[in-house]
């Protein structure tokens, strides 16, 4: 999960620390120009029936969002005039990827996935 930077008086300090860490790890990524994660906030909510992922995608048009899910992770790819987003989000539990429902409104993406039932029985022929 991502740190919530909104209304944080230490936001500039954290950005500088993140920039230095990325540079130290060989990424050389400028946090202010990085894609997903620099200005993007992701929340994951889990209930007994579903997993809900909410991501901020400011400046992205709905038509430029691509979502894929393999049951264990959700991948969000999106493009705007200013940046490209590409993030794999590990889900807290296995989900039924065919049950996904997504909405996008005012820069906020919400994806709801039903939890996967237990193991499937396999017939042996």
Would you give an account of this structure?
This protein has 125 residues and is mainly β. It has a domain at 40-114: Sandwich (Immunoglobulin-like), CATH 2.60.40.790. The chain has one helix and seven strands. A four-stranded antiparallel sheet has the order 1-2-7-6, with no helix packed on it. It has a three-stranded antiparallel sheet with strand order 3-4-5, with no helix packed on it. The termini are far apart.
Layout of secondary structure:
Blueprint lengths: L10 H14 L17 E5 L3 E7 L8 E5 L3 E7 L4 E7 L10 E5 L2 E7 L11
Antiparallel strand pairs: 1-2, 2-7, 3-4, 4-5, 6-7
Strand order of the largest sheet: 1-2-7-6
Distance between the termini: 44 Å
Low-pLDDT runs: 28-39
Helical segment tally?
1
Number of strands: 7
User: What is the ordering of alpha helices and beta strands?
Assistant: HEEEEEEE
Mean pLDDT: 78
CATH topology of the domain at 40-114: Immunoglobulin-like
- Globally, the shape reads globular
Our estimate of the beta-strand percent is 25-35%
CATH architecture group name of the domain at 40-114: Sandwich
What is the makeup of the main sheet?
Answer: 4 strands, antiparallel
Q: What CATH first level of the domain at 40-114 would be assigned?
A: Mainly Beta
What is the chains' assembly state?
Answer: single chain
Radius of gyration: 17 Å
Structural class: mainly beta
Estimate percent helicity: 10-25%
